[in-house]
Amino acid sequence: MSEIVSVCPICGGDVVVKEVEKMVKGGNNVAIIRVKAGVCSKCGERIYSKETHEKIQRIRRELKEGVTKNFEAIGCTYIYKAEV
Ligand SMILES: [Zn+2]
Known about the structure:
Number of strands: 3
CATH architecture: Roll
CATH topology: Ubiquitin-like (UB roll)
Strand order of the largest sheet: 1-2-3
Strand content: 25-35%
Bound molecules: zinc ion
Radius of gyration: 15 Å
Structural class: alpha+beta
């Protein structure tokens, strides 16, 4: 696994590596994945390693193509039609 920077590139805050939930969207499908990310303790910016970034891209592609063997459906996703 490649290194995640320890200083936030946005604000210069300290970056702590945590396990985070990320929403990945591909086409009309959405998945929640748990990945390791550097999270800035100051501004909350998330920084992913190159490997994680590539993993996210792959999952996005699977979602878009409807390759669902690695996913478990946990609910529905809606578009809210009324005015918010
Ligand atoms: Zn920051």
